[in-house]
Design goal:
The protein is of the alpha/beta class. It is built from six helices and five strands. 44% of the residues lie in helices and 14% in strands. Strand 1 (5-6) and strand 2 (11-14) form a beta hairpin.
């Protein structure tokens, strides 16, 4: 069952999705799915290549920016910012719970100069807490704002 949570008018975050969720994503105007979960993180999780194949069959682009236990890196933040900037429709980012996707979204947007306070409020409205990366968001926003 789909649990897509709206971060902005064009960005959704979600816990792990399955192949059946692709049709729901398509019906909601999703044109890009971003997988922020490493394969084999948990037994029984749907592999990225399965989501990628189902997305392709539905005419949805797919990108993997896996976030493992080591946390977030500058290249991951840059890849997310670029993907969001270049997307022309709705974007669905997913991981195990949706938290890593939301944190990466917040970092990427702060790196582009967005207000961290507003990003935190948007995340909270969707049920996610960005406080674990808030200092990094503030630093990125100051550096690039």
């Amino acid at each position: 069952m789909s649990d897509f949570r709206r971060l902005t008018d064009s960005i959704l975050a979600s816990p792990q999705i399955g192949v059946a969720d692709i049709a729901t994503a398509k019906s909601q105007g999703v044109t890009l799915i971003i997988n922020n979960r490493p394969d084999d993180e948990e037994a029984g999780q749907v592999a990225g290549h399965e989501i990628e194949a189902a997305a392709a069959a539905a005419g949805i682009e797919y990108m993997a920016i896996p976030i493992g236990q080591s946390g977030f890196s500058a290249p991951q933040v840059e890849a997310m910012a670029s993907a969001l900037e270049n997307s022309t429709g709705q974007v669905l980012a997913y991981c195990r719970s949706g938290t890593r996707s939301t944190l990466l979204w917040a970092l990427s947007q702060a790196s582009q100069g967005s207000n961290p306070e507003e990003l935190a409020a948007q995340a909270m409205a969707a049920g996610y807490d960005v406080s674990p990366v808030r200092p990094a968001m503030d630093m990125l926003a100051t550096k690039n704002g």
